[in-house]
Amino acid sequence: MTDRGRAATYDRWWVPALYDLDVRFASRLVWGASVATQARLLADVLTEGPVLDVPAGTGLFTARAVRARRSDSLIVAVDLSGRVLRRARRRLGDRAVYVEADVGRLPFRDGTFAAAHSSNGFHLFPDTSTAAEELVRVTRPTGRLVVTTWTDRGHVVARWYQRLLARLGHVNVPRSPADHISTIEAAGGVTETHTTTGTLLQWEGRRGP
Measured between alpha carbons, how far is 95 from 147 in angstroms, rounded to an integer? Predict the structure, then answer.
């Protein structure tokens, strides 16, 4: 399920910095959820390490989570783009280990992680069912799962922007929160709580026993 076209976009030298700016300024105004809000979801599972973070991106959310919750949990930062991982390494240093890999074929054994976190990935993954299955597979039974992703909700500017990005092939066609939740549950995730703030679905649960 590798999508090198999207990964190649993020591998351009200027894109990671532009992504950071976009996330910082557009998260609340366009998508309806601040960086701090999203980072708290990851911070909540850092006490349970080792923790998988995929897609780790530039480490913007991860660095905020680490500052919010001091712990010794090992973070394994995974992304398909080597360039954004290098930017993440500059932010996080030895606080994480970095793996360039496809979420559809994660190079880890079953039940490796106490928790798995996926921030803003499911609107990018070309095969969301396989991505969900892999997240569940590498998480221990009853281990924590946290997912945030764009949906077809939100104000008119957000919906228009998503449709434009989808036509350009940069993101998937927007899906409803219920569609995303069904995909995660079909893969073996058990929903504990979920909210949709603006465009962003924030889902928390566990792998089934």
Answer: 21
